[in-house]
Amino acid sequence: MTQSPPSSTPAPIDLPTGQEPLPVRDWETDFDHTHPDYAAAAPEIWEQLRQACPVAHTQRFGGTWLPVRHADVEAIAHDTVNYTSQGVIVGPRPEVDAPMGPAPPITSDPPFHAIARRLLLPPFAPKPIAALEASTRAYCHELIDNLLAKADENASSTDTAIADAAIDYAQNIPVRVIANMLGLPEHDAGRFRTFIHRVIEAPGQAGELPHEETLDYYLDTQVAEHRANPRSPEDGDLIDYLLSVDIDGMPLLDEHARGTIALLLIAGIDTTWSAIGASLWHLAENPADRRRWIEDPDVRPFAIEEFLRFCAPVTMARIAATDHELSGCPVQEGNWVLLPFPAANRDPEVFEDADTFVIDRKVNRHTAFGLGIHRCLGSNLARLEVSVAIETWMERLPEFELLDPALVRWSTGQVRGPRVLPVRLIR
Ligand code: HEM
């Protein structure tokens, strides 16, 4: 019997879903990575493509390629001659030119990329990130207190209750952490999710918005507020820091500072929310892995890396800068090329039992954080948040299961994770 979603579950995100994508004729020559069918079954599609053709193609989005083998993904990630990072989300062509692009450093090419990246290294180094552990853990406990109180209100018996692990838990953690780091008001969380939806899930589909509703306007307002109330770099937040740094004695251009803040806001939230949610989805489905996590604390660091490999959320893109061949396929200048790091993580040429979750996998050089010069700059923070979130959940709510697999809804587009994840808490 199909169960209805729990009445306590709020609507996930009150947003238009954008245009309904056309049905996919076949995944080799007409794929659509924004289609809900792709979101629901991406690992199965990569496996099918690996057998059929290692580089899929579609005429959609102006011509787009999808390599699924680790070797191709790695080669593209290291090739900054044939590919530009000016655009990393398939959609409308970026308006800010290379080598900076609209969101430095992720949209920057060499040699500017190294300059833009170096500026960001100090705040994301291991030491300042480790200092965020206690507050992140306290916040995870607070979320679970709230989730239990809400679940208890709606519980039909004292030993079972229902919660949404994505909405009530996973989505909130990175919002709080990155809002505090940047110095943005936490109560704008709903707005952040709207911006993320527009940029990642439905790029180019929002149409002409009033300027006051755009991410640019929001960030300009926040930057102006920071400029009006300057604080020292020691006492300040990440926006203060970006307004204080210079390149060869010159402050950052306004579009550089704004683009980097936008990147940190979007890269910091959607990715980590997806990784936490997908890890909980796996645990909800696999009682043996839950038991192993509880009984064997030594396995936990390995489990976190395996969650990152098996449930890797982030596919980025490149724009071809030349006409060239990619594993025998004729890529033309201007084509989009997707970099599915999650598919590379499932390549049997590189990982033994690649499609099996092995909780104590010892050799695990996964690509969840990318490869090459753009490798994730926030990986210390991401690992901290995912580890603390799963540890706290498993400490407080060790027994839980999916309410109904059919109720799980995955995000569409280039960041993949559960957006609706109703679970039954067994106490
Ligand atoms: C589990 C969570 C995360 C995953 C899986 C992830 C994944 C990735 C990947 C695959 C890339 C490479 C992009 C490319 O090659 O085009 C990347 C880049 C980046 N990530 Fe993350 N990320 C996560 C969390 C974060 C967080 C929390 C932050 C910071 C708030 C962050 C900041 C960045 C930045 C700034 C870059 C660009 C680096 C550069 O271009 O040099 N990420 N991330």
Rg from Cα:
21 Å
**Cα separation of the termini:** 23 Å
Helix/strand/pairing class, anyone?
alpha+beta
Relevant CATH superfamily: Cytochrome P450
Largest sheet: 5 strands, mixed
CATH class: Mainly Alpha
Please give the count of helices.
15
DSSP strand tally: 14
Task: Please provide a written account of the structure.
The longest helix is centred in the middle third of the chain and has 32 residues. It is built from 15 helices and 14 strands. The two termini are 23 Å apart. It has 427 residues and is of the alpha+beta class. The chain has a 5-stranded mixed β-sheet with strand order 1-2-10-7-3. The chain has one domain: Cytochrome P450 (Cytochrome p450, Orthogonal Bundle), CATH 1.10.630. Helices cover 44% and strands 11% of the residues. Protoporphyrin IX containing FE (HEM) binds next to helix 11 and helix 15.
List keywords for this structure.
15 helices, Cytochrome p450, binds protoporphyrin IX containing FE, 427 residues, disordered N terminus, globular
